[in-house]
Design brief:
With 609 residues, the protein is an alpha+beta fold. The protein has three domains: 8-220, no CATH class; 372-528 and 586-608, no CATH class; 533-582, no CATH class. 28% of the residues lie in helices and 21% in strands. A hairpin with a 2-residue loop joins strand 5 (151-155) and strand 6. Helix 1 (8-32) packs antiparallel against helix 5 (174-202), helix 4 packs across helix 5 and helix 5 (174-202) crosses helix 6. The longest helix has 29 residues, at 174-202. The chain starts with 7 loop residues before the first helix and ends in a 13-residue tail after the last helix. InterPro entries: Hydantoinase_B (IPR003692), Oxoprolinase-like (IPR045079). Residues 7-529 form the Hydantoinase B/oxoprolinase domain. Keywords: Hydrolase.
Length: 609
């Protein structure tokens, strides 16, 4: 910040207003949207950006304004304009797959654009080869749905009816798509009015001075509180997606080489060289645009795990202030992170979620294990068919367990999208022809550790009519890895009346009366499970999180009538320690040897330089 520091009271007012407007926009969308994915599952985000296209709010990630400003110069924008896009390859890296539709509204003061309000979310259907617009076996973006580059969807308050007609005509769920878009446009216009009032009350110069201060404070806080915890040096690690829906399962590597030089102007360099070639199937992510600015903000929350306390970590925003601290270096075109159009991308979550874990693994190597174990907290499952009301589509984004941490167990059934949730059973049964027979925790799914991994879902759905099952899910072979002696969690599993499903399924027939059993991933464990307090293991058994057999086999804890048998536990733990030998720093689980040719660890797992 080059100008004088803003008044501290005004800074608090501006910062609070930004947070309030963001929440108001999201609340308005949730209350007025039509689709279960937006209204009930809350799979959408709002964001506020300044006229320099910098993200000001830090509650969660968001898309980018860069593609809109690229194609529509701000000086030509007018009040009431609303811009729209979902084209992955023309989004500057801000949109990962076509169902994520993005609405952008400029904020005006004195006749000039001073900020932007934006919302983007995962919509039910935007066309393509299969219901839900996520064909798991796609070989081309043209199979995935309608691609819309940045367009002016509203011109000075007047909707572009022709564009809306084209989009709804291409959707299998036209009414919900139209309702969702109307909700998002109206909410962002409302947010733009709120921000306009802030500028009108305090003046452009003072408000923009506060914007600079908010961003600069994040930069300084991350540099002072977090980066000081990482030693200077070069650290390398990689992890893998397991299948792409086209080729047989194999290791699709995502590698990070992290160079830390805290005295440099840009202290962190993240180099993705060594990432596998782009896949034939839809697991690619077009991240190499605008200097990787989306991925910088996507990955930066991992650094918050270095905070002194978890309470302090929760206080740290991730806004544009993290961008000056990170340099991204991408490999040549044609990799998982640098795909060439029209490579398919609808399952790009396999790559961008794995990158969170790869950065955590790199930092675990650098810091002696002061990072959480792995998690895989998103996958799409669903059914579609017809009932008395016509065609229907139920697609749910289910979470999983997060990784154990050096100070605590992982969390159960969390989701990478903040504030999102599973669809309530009562709503689901009223809307779709099935019964939810069970919704609980998947026992023993969390990776054993001194601090156990969080548990995944165990959900059973009994169909009342013939339908088709679909799934976009990774970690059905590979597990969420454990760290610092912790063990891997259990992988994703689905079976239909005893027949196990692949993670990528488009149209598996399900007959009326059959039960779909879904068990989502457990997070990896942290630390030696034989060091876990036996009383905590007993409590896990009482709570239904660990079985009696799991307590014995994974933790060496013998229970008699629910109580710990101290003598038998001590004897068993001594025997287990003698039999197992040294623990690996990373445990990739039993699925890794299946795809690695029998190896139980990767070369990069070694802690030696």
């Amino acid at each position: 910040m080059t100008g004088p520091a803003p008044d501290p009271i005004l800074l608090e007012i501006v910062e609070g207003t930004l947070a309030s407007v963001e929440r108001e926009v999201e609340t308005a969308i949730a209350r007025t949207a039509r689709s279960p994915m937006i209204r009930d599952a809350h799979d959408f985000r709002a964001g506020i950006h300044d006229r320099r296209l910098r993200k000001l709010t830090g509650r969660s990630y968001s898309a980018l304004v860069q593609p809109v400003a690229r194609d529509f110069p701000p000086e030509e924008m007018r009040p009431g304009d609303v811009f729209f896009h979902n084209d992955v390859y023309l989004s500057e890296g801000g949109i990962g797959h076509l169902p994520d539709l993005c609405v952008t509204v400029p904020v005006f003061h004195g006749g000039e654009v001073v900020a932007f309000v934006q919302a983007f979310g995962h919509h039910d259907d935007i066309g393509g080869a299969v219901p839900g617009s996520m064909p798991s076996h796609a070989r081309s973006a043209f199979e995935e749905g309608l691609m819309v580059p940045p367009i002016k969807l509203w011109d000075r308050g007047v909707p572009n009816r022709a564009a809306l007609a084209i989009m709804t005509r291409n959707s299998r769920m036209p009414d919900s798509l139209a309702g969702d878009l109307d909700a998002e446009c109206s909410a962002c216009l409302m947010g733009a009015r709120r921000l306009g009032e802030l500028f009108a009350r305090y003046g452009r110069a003072d408000v923009e001075s506060c914007f600079d201060a908010i961003i600069d404070r994040t930069t300084e806080t991350f540099r002072r509180e977090l980066l000081t915890k990482i030693p200077d040096g070069v650290f390398v690690w990689e992890d893998y997606a397991e299948h792409d829906g086209v080729d047989p399962p194999r290791l699709h590597a995502q590698r990070i080489t992290l160079t830390v030089d805290k005295a440099a102007a840009v202290p962190l360099v993240i180099d993705f060289t060594g990432t596998s070639p782009q896949a034939k199937g839809p697991i690619n992510h077009a991240g190499d645009y605008s200097g990787g600015v989306f991925l910088k903000k996507w990955l930066a929350p991992v650094l918050r795990n270095l905070a002194d306390t978890p309470e302090r970590a929760a206080e740290l925003d991730v806004n544009e202030g993290v961008v000056p601290l990170i340099e991204m270096r991408f490999p040549e075109k044609g990799t998982l992170l640098t795909p060439v159009f029209p490579a398919p991308t609808n399952a790009r979550t396999f790559v961008i979620l794995r990158l969170l874990g790869v950065l955590a693994g790199v930092l675990a190597k650098a810091t002696g294990g002061r990072m959480p174990a792995d998690q895989e907290t998103i996958r799409y499952t669903g059914v579609y068919g017809e009932d008395d009301r016509g065609p229907y589509l139920m697609r749910e984004v289910l979470g999983g367990g997060s990784g154990g941490r050096y100070y605590a167990d992982g969390e159960d059934t969390i989701h990478v999208v903040p504030d999102s949730r599973n669809i309530p059973a009562e709503f689901a049964e009223a809307r779709w022809p099935f019964v939810v027979e069970r919704l609980g925790l998947a026992v023993d799914s969390g990776g054993p550790g001194e601090h156990r991994g969080g548990l995944g879902y165990d959900k059973h759905i009994r169909m009342l009519r013939d339908a088709h099952y679909m799934s976009i899910a990774d970690r059905s072979i590979l597990s969420c890895w454990g760290v610092n002696g912790g063990r891997a969690g259990r992988p994703f599993r689905v079976d239909i009346d005893g027949e196990e499903m692949d993670g990528l399924v488009d149209d598996r027939p399900v007959r009326a009366g059959q039960v779909i059993r879904i068990r989502t991933t457990g997070g990896g464990g942290w630390g030696d499970p034989l060091n876990r307090d036996p009383s905590r293991v007993a409590a896990d058994v009482r709570d239904g999180k660990v079985s009696t057999a799991g307590a014995r086999d994974d933790y060496g804890v013998v229970l008699t009538g629910g109580a710990v048998d101290a003598g038998a536990t001590e004897t068993l733990r001594a025997r287990l320690r003698a039999e197992r030998g040294p623990l690996p720093f990373f445990d990739r689980g039993p699925g890794y040897p299946q795809l690695s040719g029998g190896a139980t660890s990767a070369e990069v797992d070694s802690l030696d330089p």
